[in-house]
Structures are given as structure tokens and as C-alpha cells.
Amino acid sequence: MGYIMNFLSGILGIYTLLIFIRILLTWFPGADFGKPYILLCSLCDPYLDWFRRFRIGRNSPVDFSPILALGFLSLLRGILSAWGTLGRISIAAVLVLLLNALGSIFSWILGFFIVILLLRLIAYLTNRNIYSPLWRFVDLIAQPVMYRIGRIFFPFRIVNYLFRIIFSILILLVIAFLFRIAVYFGSVFLAALPF
Asked: Per the confidence metrics, is the pTM higher than 0.85?
């Protein structure tokens, strides 16, 4: 039974790689990759389309549903791998894997916003042309994050734009750090459960 689970885990690893390649190729719209690309789309798009129904950040110009799809594959692969290695799987192990998968997804999204805000900070400090399409896209993502953080911490005060960027980066870093600690202790607690 262990060999079958490890084999299925390997298959899911290959499929995860195909999904990742498909996601990367969407960054080049209009490029013609030929028949291999059409085959890749036919293999990956039905799975990705299922997750697009759960659009995270509906008002965001970025579609985070592929991260959710990759996280689910990672969770399933972890379950199969643990089952193949241990010969059985417990509810506690599944809960630990689920918590870690959700933690990875949330950490990735936080990291993405931190990178976007760092790009915005660099552009602001170097006086880049903020009217280019790249910086408008960065602003589309950065502004809602800075606005929400500003509304929470400074509801009745107008703060300097540079301060808002730096403060938002620091808040996201603190949230990411605290979240990792919470996931670690949550995993330790769940792993100690008797079932």
C-alpha cells in the first residue's frame, strides 16, 4: 500500500509542476507556444478553472486562485506521502498538513504583498515614472493594502505617503512572523492529539 501512495504522491508532484508551468506561461499573453502548450492547457485548465470559482480578493487585479489550487495539491500530496511512509494516516496528521498548507498559502500571499510594497517604496524613493503601466499595476495592488492598514491604525489622522508604505511593510512583516509562530504552535498542538 505504501508504494501505491508514494507513486500517487509522485504523480501529484509532476502534476503540480505542470500546473506551475501553466501558471508561469499565463504571464506571456499572446505568445504562441504551439501544440505542447495546448496539451498543457487541456491537462491543467479544468483543475485551475474549478478553483477560479473561489476568487480570493475579488477586487484585486491579481487572481490568487492558482495559489489555492497549488496549496490543495500540496496538501493532498503531503497526505499521500505521509500515508505511504507511515503505512497509515491519522486525523491529527491530516489536520497538521491542512494547517501547514493553509499557512503556506497565507504566507505566500503576505509575501506577495510585501514584495509589491517594497517595489512601491523603491519606486517612490528613486522617483521612477509612476505613470508607466508597471507602476500603475503595482499601485492597483499596493493602494488597497495601505488604505486598509492606515484605516485600522490611523483612522482619524492623515499620514505621510512614505510613512504609510514603510508602516504597511512593517505591519505585514509582523503579521507574517506572528502567523508562522501560530502555525508552528498549532501544528505541535494538533500533532499531540490522540486521534
From this structure: no
Residue at a domain's end among 45, 64, 84:
84
Cβ neighbours around 164 below 10 Å, total: 22
Cβ contact 141:61 at 8 Å: yes
> Which domain covers residue 185, as residue numbers?
90-195
Of 62, 84, 106, at which residue does a domain stop? 84
Cell of 53: 470559482
Contact yes or no for 141/120 (Cβ under 8 A):
no
pLDDT, tens digit, 9 for 90 and up, residues 59-77: 666 777 888 888 889 888 8
Whose CA is closest to 14, among 51, 34, 38, 44?
A: 44
Stated as kind and residue range, the H or E segment containing 75 is helix 65-86
Report d(CA 111, CA 173) in Å as an integer.
8
